[in-house]
Amino acid sequence: xxxxxxxxxxxxxxxxxxxxxxxxxxxxxxxxxxxxxxxxxxxxxxxxxxxxxxxxxxxxxxxxxxxxxxxxxxxxxxxxxxxxxxxxxxxxxxxxxxxxxxxxxxxxxxxxxxxxxxxxxxxxxxxxxxxxxxxxxxxxxxxxxxxxxxxxxxxxxxxxxxxxxxxxxxxxxxxxxxxxxxxxxxxxxxxxxxxxxxxxxxxxxxxxxxxxxxxxxxxxxxxxxxxxxxxxxxxxxxxxxxxxxxxxxxxxxxxxxxxxxxxxxxxxxxxxxxxxxxxxxxxxxxxxxxxxxxxxxxxxxxxxxxxxxxxxxxxxxxxxxxxxxxxxxxxxxxxxxxxxxxxxxxxxxxxxxxxxxxxxxxxxxxxxxxxxxxxxxxxxxxxxxxxxxxxxxxxxxxxxxxxxxxxxxxxxxxxxxxxxxxxxxxxxxxxxxxxxxxxxxxxxxxxxxxxxxxxx
Amino acid sequence: xxxxxxxxxxxxxxxxxxxxxxxxxxxxxxxxxxxxxxxxxxxxxxxxxxxxxxxxxxxxxxxxxxxxxxxxxxxxxxxxxxxxxxxxxxxxxxxxxxxxxxxxxxxxxxxxxxxxxxxxxxxxxxxxxxxxxxxxxxxxxxxxxxxxxxxxxxxxxxxxxxxxxxxxxxxxxxxxxxxxxxxxxxxxxxxxxxxxxxxxxxxxxxxxxxxxxxxxxxxxxxxxxxxxxxxxxxxxxxxxxxxxxxxxxxxxxxxxxxxxxxxxxxxxxxxxxxxxxxxxxxxxxxxxxxxxxxxxxxxxxxxxxxxxxxxxxxxxxxxxxxxxxxxxxxxxxxxxxxxxxxxx
Lengths: 456, 344
Prior knowledge:
The complex is a heterodimer of chains A (456) and B (344).
Chain A: E1 9-10, H1 40-50, E2 69-75, H2 83-109, E3 114-120, H3 124-136, E4 141-144, H4 148-161, E5 165-167, E6 184-186, H5 191-204, E7 209-215, H6 218-234, E8 239-246, H7 254-263, E9 267-271, H8 274-287, E10 292-295, H9 304-314, E11 321-324, H10 335-346, H11 352-369, H12 376-384, E12 390-391, E13 397-398, E14 411-416, E15 422-428, H13 438-442
Parallel strand pairs in A: 2-3, 2-4, 4-5, 5-6, 7-8, 7-9, 9-10
Antiparallel strand pairs in A: 11-14, 12-13, 14-15
Helix pairs in contact in A: 2-11, 3-4, 5-6, 8-9
Chain B: H1 7-13, H2 21-24, E1 31-37, E2 42-47, E3 53-58, E4 66-73, E5 79-86, E6 97-102, E7 107-113, E8 118-123, E9 129-134, E10 139-144, E11 150-155, E12 160-165, E13 171-176, E14 181-186, E15 191-197, E16 202-207, E17 213-218, E18 223-228, E19 233-239, E20 249-251, E21 257-261, E22 268-272, E23 277-282, E24 290-295, E25 301-306, E26 311-316, E27 321-327, E28 332-339
């Protein structure tokens, strides 16, 4: 093995000073902790300087590594005035950076490198222009952590250019239905998946009468439709006790609270944005109502900042249970190690947005290495290939649904303590259930085949 | 914590048989079974013949904080090694160590400080070097048994776990969970020579008795990759199914069967290595979350370490059925079988 590598660190014989020998391809002392981390550009330069790469994966020759492919990343700008939106933007950025540090360097080590161009985008027109510019630069995939409107717009660009797009933020159901594209792949769970999970948990615990407080806009109407449909079709013993529509961004109308009280529900679900949920739960608690209350887990409502604010606002109300796609307290399937690395890297817990950004790169790492994909069409083909599975730290092999490209995955029920700390108390669907099919289990959440209006 | 003995004591204690095969040729009545208890900070010891629990070796006074996971029995059976860490994977603490336990006294006789979060380990056939996967630093480390000194470390991929030395002592294979790789290290020249891509979340690696093949389980991929050791290539991938979760493995003495622990599936898969087919999936009476798996010296019995049922399942190889379940501490992780030293 002419290109074999010696140890990264060797010890000198006893009694002599220890000598440090750096490998020419070393990922550094610890790519995970940040110590001695090599910048990707520096590493590439080093690779070029030292000649051929080592023999790497199955069937590869030692004649040299591959040229890096480029991934375009589009994220919201950091530093938004709304602290919850700022937290989401920061999480997306942190997950992206950490994934590139870890997986980017690992791909280098295997001789199948990729590089990343990160752009921040503030609005829809900017998103379209940025997506076009990235595609013009030859990216093999886009990772998009933008809001609903921007994601829809960028999907149109990706569709036209035939470049795969990984959505890591928007839960908009339309993207898994009529707004879908053969090039759109959703890492972020859909709104329908969250609602299905919430109803599954609460009905299972005996909550039968459901009150929905919804924003009087299109997004609220869409979520209400899904929530109603799931209750009707899957949970025969449950029913909708009432629906209260509220204006987004406005102070809580006492009449809305009175309407909820009159309906005497078992559980109240706020299909509102994160800030409106905080305002409503505060008024709800002050009114003295004690029925269980929870809310739609949009990304901003899955941040630790939101949890602290939620519990502070909830007072004595029963408001401890929320749905999540990821939590920093997860104890199994490698989550401890991943969460711990993230905490050490950034000084804050990994939340759903940072998890999704990281997992987009885990999916791409698999695609570039195990799949050997180096072009947009090869990336898309690997995502769609029957038998392709991804490990997203949830304990099961996941894949994209063929009919709408939603990533199959479990969701979590979290109990938020009064101090904002979290304990995961449930997983749906169950990670393991003997006698059932894994894929069928995971497809219990969200739009099933035949139900989705996306037909890929 | 027992005080470390001088190196000379260990050198004497760890002089080993030429290969681990010599151990495997022992009779069925002169062995012990060791189960590492991840949440009990201990190792439960069973008499191989009577299956009576004869001891619990404490590796720490901090159960729930200090966790022994991977183990390896020295070829001469005199020492059981354990990879010990804590639940703070990113911090190197005093708990992170490779511990050698004298099986005659069941006392800890050596403690090697081994980087951050050592998870599994393996000795070379001579018993003179111990290799460990260092989970948090993405490294494998090799240490001199006689002196306890680190010889070298190698970057091997993110979250390394399984580690094994080939029966001829030439190669060390290290799996990495996040990278989906096996790193191959030339054990004699101390050079990393190759990476192989295997299934998603590779866990454990085992060599066939003749050293020609290596098997790598991939928990999320639901596969066992078969590596031709001479060619350093994956030559087959055995699919156990998406929901199979293969983790620990044991190879029969004649190499014709591979026993695979199903982890979260509470199953053991029995693979015929000539056809690469699963000939039996053992589930009845199995303990929960069987992670570690080992064979008795005569190959007639399989033992599994069951993390969620705090037990060890005992499986008869003839019927491929569970014949016993025994309490085995808190959170069993690995099970290893060691020869009882002469005179015991």
